[in-house]
């Protein structure tokens, strides 16, 4: 299986159009092979987006590991200022298409985790690539601290079976952590910078 967090140009492109409704808005996306959740909006991302209070999300937002763009594009469609990044070039090309398709203005760029991220964000919101393994996953989660404003928030989704409880416990050493939702094994975790 080719992993969605790697650039593998040997994987044949087979674009597909999907649609879904979130917060009473219809979204259209183009997906492809070698990107995460190509068949439609995954349950974890849906749970994440339905769990956040969109009116409380203010300031500058980073969608890290953006894939084909559902998190960042949803936030931008609600008037938020959003940067989106990923290491997967196919995913980034799709995210750019999808931003245009959904009439949102976002800044999309290539970055291996935080390598090309500059500046600070009020929110970093992500469905991080769990399958990269714990060491790299924690570079996403713990590394966010250096890119958050004082009192900024890292909000992410992780499944109970993929270490949600231990992640919340480990991250509480450097953030003020609260679990804002649990749904069918998916935990939505809010880590506030301190």
Walk me through the topology:
Layout: E1 16-22, E2 25-31, H1 43-51, E3 60-64, H2 70-77, E4 81-86, H3 89-101, E5 107-110, E6 121-126, H4 134-143, E7 148-159, H5 164-171, E8 175-183, E9 186-193
Parallel strand pairs: 3-4, 3-6, 4-5, 6-7
Antiparallel strand pairs: 1-2, 7-9, 8-9
Walk me through the structure.
This protein has 5 helices and 9 strands; from the N terminus they run ββαβαβαββαβαββ. The strands form 2 sheets. Strands 5-4-3-6-7-9-8 form a 7-stranded mixed sheet, sandwiched between helices. Strands 1-2 form a two-stranded antiparallel ribbon. It has helices at residues 43-51, 70-77, 89-101, 134-143, 164-171, and strands at 16-22, 25-31, 60-64, 81-86, 107-110, 121-126, 148-159, 175-183, 186-193. The protein is of the alpha/beta class. The model has no long low-confidence stretch (mean pLDDT 92). 42% of the residues are buried.
Question: Pairing-aware structural class of the strands and helices?
Answer: alpha/beta
Q: In one word, what is the shape?
A: globular
First-to-last CA distance = 40 Å
| H/E series | EEHEHEHEEHEHEE
Report the β-strand fraction as a percent range.
25-35%
CATH architecture: 3-Layer(aba) Sandwich
Strand segment tally: 9
- Indicate the CATH topology: Rossmann fold
Major β-sheet, in short?
A: 7 strands, mixed
Strand order in the sheet with the most strands: 5-4-3-6-7-9-8
Helix content: 10-25%
Low-confidence stretches: none
CATH homologous superfamily, by name? Answer: Vaccinia Virus protein VP39
Number of helices: 5
Q: How many domains make up the coordinates? A: 1
Q: How much is the radius of gyration in Å?
A: 15 Å
